[in-house]
Amino acid sequence: xxxxxxxxxxxxxSTLCYVSTCYMxxxxxCRKCQGKxxxxxxxxxxxxxxxxxxxxxxxxxxxxxxxxxxxxxxxDR
Length: 77
Hints:
The chain has one domain (2-76). The protein is 49% helix and 16% strand. It has helices spanning 2-24, 62-76, and strands at 27-29, 38-40, 47-49, 58-60.
């Protein structure tokens, strides 16, 4: 009984922490360029701009994507 309760509480706390992170800081670092906005060429002749983040180094978090989608559904109803 105690391990199940402990897992449930841990899950709830981690979910609330992620939700607050998505609310306070909706953008995270881009995983492709590690937040730099540029990717080095494989051959070594300079850099190119990251297409995933449009060279900003920031991407919208998954939780914020979901929040925007649900909010848009509610608004359009």
